[in-house]
Design goal:
The protein is mainly alpha-helical. The protein is 74% helix and 2% strand. It has a two-stranded antiparallel sheet. It starts with a helix and ends with a helix.
Length: 234
């Protein structure tokens, strides 16, 4: 029987060097945008988090058991938007490759910013987030990892687990790869929540139109994506 330590030793080791640093910069830039989308949805759309599906699926079951058809249909629509984003991302990746998927995700995020600014505050809060559910799924599929680390740029649960795990493993073993794991996931958490803080300030001052202030973050993500691809060609 393999021990837990033997299984960890067999896992793919994180990459290092300039290409890895470029991937990490891109990933962290997209985490900034992910944090902004998250806080925007929570503050302006009745506490709904449009970048993940766990809560929505729980409420979907509750609505079904409670026989609340309108609520059930709204939750089902959210799930279908999220699943639809994943399906589209897979099709783009299969037919046009990873590069096309990344630029499609950036385009989807930008289009969603423009759309959200035009959805009034009186709209149903869940339906108003349908574009976010869709675009977040595409972004997750387009930026699922960096430098060998599996990591989401749109929510934090696994990033927090990996960060705490990496630090604990490093303190127990003093192995460099666990220190790199801790630093990568810790920086991802910091970037995501820096996006949250920036989004909070923007929403506080400008309300619904504050989503326009996410566009510079997406432009930063596009810039790093472009530079990463240039490095791969050279």
């Amino acid at each position: 029987m393999e021990t837990a330590e033997q299984r960890r030793t067999k896992e793919p080791r994180p990459q290092s060097g300039l290409p890895a640093r470029r991937e990490i910069r891109t990933h962290h830039a997209m985490a900034l945008a992910g944090g902004f989308f998250g806080i925007y949805a929570i503050l302006l759309r009745d506490g709904n988090f449009g970048s993940a599906e766990t809560g929505n699926l729980i409420y979907l079951v509750i609505a079904g058991l409670s026989r609340s058809l309108p609520e059930f249909l709204l939750r089902l629509g959210s799930m279908l938007c999220y699943a639809g984003g994943i399906v589209l991302a897979v099709l783009i990746r299969r037919h046009w490759g990873r590069r096309a998927l990344r630029w499609s995700a950036l385009a989807a995020d930008g289009a969603v910013c423009l759309l959200l600014a035009r959805i009034p505050g009186t709209a149903n809060p869940l339906a108003a987030l349908y574009p976010v559910f869709f675009a977040a799924a595409v972004q997750w599929a387009a930026y699922p990892e960096a430098a060998g680390f599996k990591s989401s740029t749109i929510f934090s649960t696994n990033n927090l687990r990996q960060c705490a795990e990496g630090l604990t493993e490093y303190l127990c073993t003093r192995k460099e790869r666990f220190w790199r794991q801790f630093r990568f996931y810790g920086a991802t958490l910091l970037c995501f929540h820096a996006g949250v803080a920036y989004g909070w300030l923007c929403v506080r001052h400008w309300g619904i139109p504050s989503i326009y202030f996410c566009l510079p973050l997406l432009a930063l993500g596009a810039w790093f994506t472009w530079n990463e691809e240039l490095g791969m060609r050279s």
